[in-house]
Amino acid sequence: MGFRNEKCKERFIQEWLFNTADTPYREHIKPLTSCDNGSVLLETAGNKCSIITDPTGPLAACHPFVSPQFYYETCIFDLCQLLPSTYMLCGHVEAYILECSQVTGGTTEVGHWRDVTEKCGKKRC
């Protein structure tokens, strides 16, 4: 069983490789943006993603149940690649809230994060 899983894992990894000779339109794939310490991108992404880790922010009620660190770090990585666009921020916040809801059985209320997050807007349903 372990052998099969290893083969599946390798196949999955190979499918996600995009900078290979057989990748169509390789010239359209942008290299990852550097988000080094001290860069403007890192500072901007960190400020926008800090809604996830803010101890007094709208998601603070989730912090005792789900560590925000992973969501914060992946948010920064994605925003560094996409700034000035911040549309991915909404997805990271929503993913954190979903994890919190699943862990707590939906008993934890979060604050009005859409009001303080650019471009996420009010939920339309």
From TrEMBL:
Superkingdom of origin: Eukaryota
InterPro entries per UniProt: Mucin_vWF_Thrombospondin_sf, VWF/SSPO/ZAN-like_Cys-rich_dom
VWF/SSPO/Zonadhesin-like cysteine-rich domain location: 42-121
GO cellular component: extracellular matrix; extracellular space
SMART domains: C8
Transmembrane segments: none
Entry keyword set: Disulfide bond
Name under which the protein is recorded: IgGFc-binding protein
